Amino acid sequence: MAAADTIRGPVSARPEEAQDIANLRTALEAADNGGTLRYFLADSAGRRLELPASVFRVLVDVVRAMARGQSVAVLHYDEELTTQQAADLLQVSRPYLVRLLEEGKIPYHMVGTHRRIYLRDVLAYKELRDRRRREALRELRRASEALGLYDEPDVGGG
User: pLDDT per residue over 79-117, tens digit each?
Assistant: First the structure.
């Protein structure tokens, strides 16, 4: 399936849906926190389909995000992204992303004259980048502590 077929932009809750989403979040989190509830979809004819656990987990994550006022989009892991979509996901400029591609840091393939990147490869790069950032911050903190430059915050206020 082409990216244009599935990436329609984020979905945001309308203000009038806020209370319904909050109620849904409460119910879903009760089941997600070890509850024994089962969830079903029902159509207008009254037929019920039980939600599989994997679908339920995605639904819980979507509802939590929307309850926080965030917009959501669901993509499949093998989705092909344009360079702009990948740059947006990584929160970098498109020219910077192209440089990452050309340096071989993120795999890509050509579709005609256009670069395409699999979502899985963008997410793998993001995870690696974020892991390296966290480790660099830990190292910086350790060095600051060793030099006596880092103090724990005074939580007691005294």
Answer: 999 999 999 999 999 999 999 999 999 999 999 999 999
Q: Nearest-CA neighbor of 78 among 36, 107, 39? A: 107
Q: Are 101 and 117 contacting, i.e. CB atoms less than 8 angstroms apart?
A: yes
User: 28 with 63: CB under 8 angstroms?
Assistant: yes
The distance from CA 50 to its chain's CA centroid, rounded to whole angstroms, is 25
131 alpha-carbon distance from chain centroid: 16
Distance CA 19, CA 156 (A): 37
Report whether CATH 1.10.1660.10 matches the domain 80-146. Answer: yes
Residues across the chain = 158
pTM over 0.70: no
| Domains in the chain: boundaries | 14-67, 80-146
Residue that wins the pLDDT comparison between 73 and 124: 124
Using CA atoms, how far apart are residues 44 and 77, in angstroms rounded to an integer?
32
Tokens of 73: 């989009």
CA-angle at 34, arms to 29 and 40, nearest 5°: 60
